[in-house]
């Protein structure tokens, strides 16, 4: 076990040049006396070279645009090489809108103002972006997770997939199976658009197990006339653990949009749950009426004929179209997950909607009255779409399922690219599924869920290093030596010096991560945390951190943020500061976990109370050049950090070896 004590000079992070290393205090002196001179010498050499580099970087930044290496693309899937001729910005047309005319969210990533500027990506950079232990198809476009389930020893994941290209279109159901949710086998498509009622797309759906062992899959079909209808499919052969063949019910579609509901506003049926008498099934479908997001409920005894129940399960004005609604119980007493039909004392119900208007997944905790068929939020101020999010980064169209194998509820979410569509066409692929997360009610706060990567991901942990009690003075950065910086599982905790904390009032009590300006913005009690996917000189890097805002009344609010502003020197990628508040209970340390897997970083604060998923596309901080740092950019307090970092192996994801059976 390596123990690292911060001995690097402290640097002021607040300056015109981000992370320009201007020391604001002498180097830490905890090193043995005999080492001090050499440390000082090393520090001054480091400082001089950092200073020189800052000057160079500043110089580069102030060059006219034409001097910066850029490549212009015409939007086709062209191979980029050093000989490719730049195409003038005027000839590069914006990508066509994708999905909107069919009534789903915009699928093309649009970067305001930078459409004509593409970075000169190299093959090395682009191939680095592909993840190593997250689920991705071999190529092309993927979006929502669909119908996850566990059957006869296999976890099944279906997903929205375009077999033809790295952009949305021709939506089919990709299919993969796994024994452990980490290593996957690709299987043949489960469903393709081949009927009048789903010819424009086999859209999102969910699985339900019937008591006799049958499985029904309800999904949305986009018809030849671009009308959203609900359809039924089922496995052709229940004795096949791989569930290879799916039959579309001959009576499809089973539901058309009801009166008063737009033909493009009726989609994504949930897993069904049993009615109070146990003789009928209910499921909900997202929609909207004007700007009010709603969830319709249908009841069926046989999945062939259906009745729409009066009223809505729930509605929230101003939230717009609800996509991919999810509805499930969580125990307030136990840590195990619950099957979707369970209700009664000691149970709350989670209602989640993916808001088409802002493309984020919002959930709320509440109570489901199954006799009235109404769900009521615990806190109307934290209602669906106006309160909590599963994830404050890029995370959408998520879906849970009950894993009867390990009695847990597992959440999957689609993590789209945040580079441009041109970059995706160059790469030949787009989107990742998050690492599946277990979801439980947070019994300590009573007001939120806890999300945590499934335990199986820890199978991939290999060599680890530990850094105990690293003292970080105000404005300091400490490099952490790790083996494979693009594939890591980082667990870190931080303690603020108690006396300093008591005696400090943070003026900026109305802090908010997205508007804060990021980790360069210093307060008395933050930011402090880690920087991942940074290069040696910190010209690129993504800080993931806490910021404590303590008002004059002595009350402290903690924020958990991810600052992508300097994550990449490429101009054509989305760079923002993500984050939100995170509850920290008296006596708890500030704790975070980050799963770094090339272009995706999933970060969990306080055991999963607040989660942020980032997509990051560095140009320098890749492969062997990537670094990890600890930092404390607070002005008023010292922070003590303890970190354990594992190198993560790669998941084995390949075609099912049918020929070896
Ligand atoms: N994606 C599907 C729809 C869903 C949307 C289409 C959410 O069913 O509403 O690909 O991303």
TrEMBL record:
Region (Disordered): 70-104
Domain Beta-fructofuranosidase N-terminal as annotated: residue spans: 19-126
Chain intervals with Polar residues compositional bias: 70-86
Enzyme class (EC, first level): hydrolase
PROSITE patterns, per database record: GLYCOSYL_HYDROL_F32
Domain of life per record: Eukaryota
Matches recorded under SUPFAM superfamilies: Arabinanase/levansucrase/invertase, Concanavalin A-like lectins/glucanases
EC number(s) given by UniProt: 3.2.1.26
Membrane-spanning ranges: 41-60
Localization per Swiss-Prot or TrEMBL: Vacuole lumen
Cellular-component GO terms for this entry: vacuolar lumen
Keyword Transmembrane helix part of the UniProt annotation: yes
InterPro entries in the cross-refs: Beta-fructofuranosidase_N (IPR021792), ConA-like_dom_sf (IPR013320), Fructan_Metab_Enzymes (IPR050551), Glyco_hydro_32 (IPR001362), Glyco_hydro_32_AS (IPR018053), Glyco_hydro_32_C (IPR013189), Glyco_hydro_32_N (IPR013148), Glyco_hydro_beta-prop_sf (IPR023296)
Keywords: Glycoprotein, Glycosidase, Hydrolase, Membrane, Transmembrane, Transmembrane helix, Vacuole
Domain named Glycosyl hydrolase family 32 C-terminal: residues: 456-647
GO molecular function: beta-fructofuranosidase activity
Domain Glycosyl hydrolase family 32 N-terminal: 134-453
PANTHER family linked: BETA-FRUCTOFURANOSIDASE, INSOLUBLE ISOENZYME CWINV1-RELATED
Similarity section: Belongs to the glycosyl hydrolase 32 family.
Assembly with partners or alone: May be present in two forms, a 70 kDa monomer and a heterodimer of the 30 kDa and 38 kDa subunits. The ratio of the levels of the two forms within cells appears to be regulated developmentally.
Record's protein name: beta-fructofuranosidase
């Amino acid at each position: 076990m390596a123990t690292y004590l911060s001995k690097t000079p402290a640097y002021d992070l607040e300056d015109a040049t981000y992370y320009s290393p201007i020391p604001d205090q002498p180097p830490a002196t905890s090193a043995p006396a005999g080492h001090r001179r050499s440390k000082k010498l090393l520090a001054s050499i480091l400082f001089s070279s950092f200073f020189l580099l800052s000057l160079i970087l500043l110089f580069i930044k102030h060059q006219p645009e034409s001097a910066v290496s850029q490549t212009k693309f015409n939007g086709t899937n062209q191979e980029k090489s050093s000989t490719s001729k730049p195409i003038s910005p005027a000839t590069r047309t914006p990508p066509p809108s994708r999905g909107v005319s069919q009534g789903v969210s915009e699928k093309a990533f649009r970067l305001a103002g930078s459409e004509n500027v593409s970075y000169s990506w190299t093959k090395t950079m682009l191939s680095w972006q592909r993840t190593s232990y997250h689920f991705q198809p071999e190529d092309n476009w993927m979006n929502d997770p669909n119908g996850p389930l566990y059957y006869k020893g296999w976890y099944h994941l279906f997903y929205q997939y375009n077999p033809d290209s790295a952009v949305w279109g021709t939506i089919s159901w990709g299919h993969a199976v796994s024994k452990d949710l980490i290593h996957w086998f690709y299987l043949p498509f489960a469903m393709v658009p081949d009927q009048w009622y789903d010819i424009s797309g086999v859209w999102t759906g969910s699985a339900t197990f019937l008591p006799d062992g049958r499985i029904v899959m309800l999904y949305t079909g986009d018809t030849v006339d671009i009308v959203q209808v609900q359809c039924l499919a089922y496995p052709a052969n229940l004795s096949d653990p791989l569930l290879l063949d799916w039959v579309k019910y001959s009576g499809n579609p089973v539901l058309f949009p009801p009166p008063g509901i737009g033909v493009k506003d009726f989609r994504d049926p949930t897993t069904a749950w049993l009615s109070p008498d146990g003789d009928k099934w209910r499921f909900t479908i997202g929609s909207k009426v004007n700007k009010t997001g709603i969830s319709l409920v249908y009841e069926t005894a046989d999945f062939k004929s259906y009745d729409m129940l009066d009223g809505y399960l729930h509605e929230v004005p101003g939230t717009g179209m609800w996509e991919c609604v999810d509805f499930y119980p969580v125990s307030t007493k136990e840590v195990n997950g619950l099957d979707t039909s369970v209700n009664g004392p000691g149970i709350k119900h989670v209602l989640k909607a993916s808001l088409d208007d802002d493309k984020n997944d919002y959930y709320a905790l509440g109570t489901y009255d199954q006799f009235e068929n109404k769900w009521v939020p615990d806190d109307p101020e934290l209602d669906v779409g106006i309160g909590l999010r599963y994830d404050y980064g890029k995370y959408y169209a998520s879906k849970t399922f009950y894993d009867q194998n390990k009695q847990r509820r597992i959440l999957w979410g689609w993590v789209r690219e945040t580079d441009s569509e041109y970059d995706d066409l160059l790469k030949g692929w787009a989107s990742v599924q998050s690492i599946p997360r277990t979801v439980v009610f947070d019994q300590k706060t009573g007001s939120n869920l806890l999300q945590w990567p499934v335990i199986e991901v820890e199978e991939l942990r290999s060599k680890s290093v530990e850094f105990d009690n690293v003292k970080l003075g105000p404005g300091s950065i400490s490099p952490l030596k790790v083996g494979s910086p693009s594939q890591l599982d980082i667990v870190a905790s931080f303690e603020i010096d108690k006396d300093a904390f008591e005696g400090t009032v943070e003026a900026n009590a109305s802090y908010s991560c997205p508007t804060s300006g990021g980790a360069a913005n210093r307060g008395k009690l933050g930011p402090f945390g880690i920087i991942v996917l940074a290069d040696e000189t910190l010209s690129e890097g993504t800080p993931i951190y806490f910021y404590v805002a303590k008002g004059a009344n002595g009350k402290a609010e903690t924020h958990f943020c991810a600052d992508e502003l300097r994550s990449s020197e490429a101009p054509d990628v989305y760079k923002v500061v993500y984050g939100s508040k995170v509850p920290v209970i008296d006596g708890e340390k500030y704790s975070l976990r980050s799963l770094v897997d090339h272009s995706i970083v999933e970060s969990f604060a306080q055991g999963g109370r607040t989660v942020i998923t980032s997509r990051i596309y560095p140009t320098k901080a890749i492969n062997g050049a990537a670094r990890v740092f600890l930092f404390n950019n607070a002005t008023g307090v010292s922070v003590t950090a303890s970190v354990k970092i594992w190198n993560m192996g790669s998941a084995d994801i390949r075609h099912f070896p049918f020929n070896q059976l």
